[in-house]
Each structure stands twice: as structure tokens, then as C-alpha cells.
Design a protein that fits this description.
Layout lengths: L1 E5 L3 E5 L1 H16 L4 E7 L2 E7 L5 E4 L10 H11 L5 E2 L11
Parallel strand pairs: 3-6
Antiparallel strand pairs: 1-2, 1-5, 3-4
Helix pairs in contact: 1-2
Length: about 100
């Protein structure tokens, strides 16, 4: 399990694969100086945090290598991040077969 450290006082755990995808989307938004709401459900509890470029965020992975990213999942997560309701953690879709 990886950890999203938020504002140096909050820690949220996600599996490394999920965290890698979240990092790609969050860093993209924050790198453009854009704030966003991030919402997910954990153990039947819905959580939301406001991510802002001035609030420290750190991504800590348990595994040495970050897993490869699923382009379809990145596109879905990015679409939610750009919507008014903000980034929502969606289940990973199957990757289209490569020919």
C-alpha cells in the first residue's frame, strides 16, 4: 500500500497502482496551478480533500518500481478531475487490446 501525504498532517493509503494513476492526474492539475476536489470511498466512508498548489502533497510507494499506467484509466480520472465535482476515484477499466 502506498500513501498520499497531504498537508504534512494527513495520510491516506491506496494500493501502489491506484496511487500511481492518482499522482499522474493530481500532479498535472497542480502543475497547471489548478485546485481540485478529490473524492473517494474507503471502508464505506466517503472522503474528500481540497487539493491546492500551495498545500504540500507527497506520494510514497511501497514497491520500488511504479506500475505501468493504464491510459484508459488516466483519461477517465482526468475527465472527472476537469469536471465541476472534481476528481473521483473510479474503478480501473480494462485496457484495450493492442494489435
Amino acid at each position: 500500500m502506498g500513501t498520499l501525504h497531504y498537508d504534512s498532517s494527513h495520510r491516506f493509503q491506496f494500493d501502489d497502482r491506484t496511487l500511481a494513476h492518482l499522482r499522474a492526474v493530481i500532479v498535472s492539475k497542480l502543475g497547471h496551478q489548478e485546485s481540485l476536489l478529490f473524492t473517494w470511498t474507503s471502508k464505506d466512508t466517503q472522503r474528500s480533500i481540497w487539493l491546492h498548489p500551495t498545500i504540500p502533497v507527497q506520494f510514497e510507494f511501497d514497491e520500488g518500481e511504479v506500475p505501468p499506467l493504464n491510459r484508459a484509466w488516466l483519461e477517465e480520472l482526468t475527465a472527472t478531475a476537469n469536471a465541476p465535482a472534481g476528481l473521483r476515484l473510479l474503478p480501473e477499466p480494462a485496457e484495450p487490446e493492442q494489435h
